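Q: Two folds, back to back.
A: First:
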Amino acid sequence: MTVKVFTKSNAADLDHYQQRCELACAFRWAVRHDFHESVANHFSLAVSDDGSQFLINPNGRHFSRITASNLLLLDANDPDTMKRPDAPDPSAWGLHGSLHRNVPHARCILHVHSTYATVLASLEDSLMPAVDQNSARFFNRVVVDEGFGGMAFQEEGERICNLMQDKRIMIMGNHGLMVTAASVAQAYDDIYYFERAAKNYVKALMTQKPLRVLPDEIAEKTAQQWENYKNGPENHFSELMAILDETEADYRS
């Protein structure tokens, strides 16, 4: 098997190059925002119309070293994926392969064990009430998985798919956070704001004072305003890519 090595000069010849750059950018910023954990966790992005072909990080590679060219291109319907010499991490295949195979709206999937989202996932009641503008963004838009069954291998991945049919964001009880979206920009914006909202909520709980929870109608109104706020995720992510272009341009290689 011949392995082609991509450099800064020829990486742009890769299939799905722009999508690769966007996903690589998300990995680099996950490090800067301290969403990463060792060489674990995985981000993926569908590149085929049916969502079955997707990009994902290679096994054992630290997020800070992810580049456009070292992302794997997998097919969720290929039974021989784990026999490849560059096979992905088994939990990456179990979770992301299952979702890209069974949940069409999950084009971009970001899974992290970020600190405050994981604290939230560890509580008996893992739902985050609308106590500020950021938490109101997620009002009635999150599913909580209360059936953690171990690491996200094939069986666990298939189980999780059944919970994601009408939601994009999951608090994975006793585990972490998973965000799905139509684009990398939307998914990263969601994960960024969710972690900030969870941080504010956890710190509010630490005061041991009563919470000022928004009425349902105001929380829903605010969530809809977030959804209708034009180009917010796109502008956010465009700036993140611009910063990397100035400081870590090798993510495009």
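A: Second:
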Amino acid sequence: MSYVLGIDCGTSATKTVLFDSDGNAVASASKEYPLYQPANGYAEQDPLHWKNAMLDTVTEIICKSGVSADEIAGIGLSGQMHGLVMLDSGGNVLRNAIIWCDQRTQPQVDKMNVLAADKIAQISANPALTGWTLAKILWVRDNEPQIYEKCRHILLPKDYLRYVLTGEFATEVSDASGMQLLDVKNRCWSKELCSLFEIDTSLLARICESCEVTGKVTAHIADITGLRQGTIVVGGAGDNAAAAVGTGVCRQGRAFTTIGTSGVVFAHTDKPVIDPKGRVHTCCAAVPGSWHVMGVTQSAGLSLKWFRDNFCGAEKETAKLLGTDEYYIMDKQAETVAVGCDRLIYLPYLMGERTPHLDADARGVFFGLSAVHTKKHMLRAVMEGVAFSLRDCVEVFREMGLDITDMAACGGGAVSALWRSMLADLYGCEVKTLSSKEGPALGAAILAAVGAGIYSSVPQACGAIVKQDKLCTPDAQRAQLYEQYYRLYRKLYPSLKAGFSELAQL
């Protein structure tokens, strides 16, 4: 039997999973690393941490899986999108990567809009965005010119790992769509945008499709990890595009919601459909000749992690004693609170917001907090607030005429039956989970399987590999209650927008 590796470079950790050709996980390993916030709204990571995490997890899997390296037909890469990795002429990292949730670039976005707002939206299929890569490039050029002058290669996080594995400077269309330098309709770098913003195209990686072979494992990496020299590495995909493949979202009408550090609602489309208000993102899909529309909640799982880290010490200790996960304990506590949390609403804007507000200054809020509320109320309110924000994404899709008939849930948050029930009630449709919980890693591995010739196409591979597990059906009574709270939730941001802006200036 042939095997494939899926490597997912996430915000919290890099996870590597070995799958057989039927999509069964044979072995997995993950390694965490820190996120640095040197100032309010800043978010950075060290690419060398990603590199070491990948090499360590691959080595661990080769050692413990019992699978010969000769049986591994290919490697697929997935990763957090929009991060800026800058290398010098020798391939050395010049500075920490500025990652997807960083919000420092509003001045650069303002300049981009003055220069060419319409052109950016027309070519990149999205408005200028603070979290996307072009604004980060311009920030470094404006604020760290000595770094920019030394830069010879600009890569995305997973593509830096590709360089480590193969020595090749390559990317693929799904991840490159989030750089704001890609002609999304034509799936190639935009010479016009590069010229407008004076970006030398020689800095950019070769562009490929997601299942295309981009390079082969070098002798040096083979010696370190135990991989076979010459093992192919395919383009892979940005984390959400990879998750789409891993959940079988590769045909019109299919969608998924993921609750990871960020939250995403993602719908497949056979043509590039663009929101004229710029509230959701249109990008190339990992399936050749297709696209996807994506709405993003900046701080989804991050909101719950923030609450856990700051307020749930007792739950952590209980989880240790019971030999279970602290999120399971938190989930059970939240279940004891009624829908609406006794009139408490949470706005999940810890790192600004993307859909539908595009506001880097937005911040988290507990609205309605009173003396009757306990930690459990606040915990459930965090989960409901994230679900409300994801419903915002679905509402924009509906305005665009996207008919979603098939919704899957994935990511760490999808483990929670409570969170899935909130989504089903708020979306008004069934929400399914899948038998494999690997998401982006599985998607990357499927792309590798196609690149290695095990399957002839991405849809064929998904049809053979992706299987449904649980199904959550909406409850009419709960849905009616949620609808009342959701209508109030939608009124809160417009009321607070000016205050968020004023707070940012203090």
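Q: And?
A: The first strand starts at residue 3 and ends at 9.
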